[in-house]
Amino acid sequence: MKIISLKEMSRYEKIFLLKELGFNEMDSFVIDKKGNFVLDRYTEEKISIDNMAIFPTDDGILALDNNELSIASYLEFYGDEEETNKVEAMKFTQAYKIVRQVMGLKE
User: Fold this and answer.
1) How far apart are alpha carbons 74 and 62 in whole angstroms?
2) What is the mean pLDDT of the chain?
3) For residue 5, is it within any domain?
4) Between residues 31 and 93, which one has the greater pLDDT?
5) Residues whose CB is less than 8 angstroms from the CB of residue 68 and which lie 6 or more positions away in sequence, other chains included
């Protein structure tokens, strides 16, 4: 799985990336297409734009809070070499490249 750091992205880039992946932002938190706050699958807390992590899964993209429990739980459940994650990882990588191009940044 390719890892791309979101820490170095500006808030504007993160929001743009979320939109490319089918999410949005409200009050500094990630929301889904229906306008519901996205909760971290493992902690059940709202996911802050400033502390989010995005991972591919076999059924789409998973947004998590960037904390040790959530990351470890994701890796335990999905592993880091899941064949089924490749399509979603490619989709994320393409969206990330679009953000960088729009922002005029180097890859």
Assistant:
1) 9
2) 79
3) no
4) 31
5) none
How many domains does the chain fold into?
1
How is residue 84 written in tokens?
């089924």
State the average pLDDT over residues 59-68. 82
| Residue 39, pLDDT score | 94
The reply to whether 73 falls in a domain is yes
40: closest CA among 62, 56, 20, 19? 62
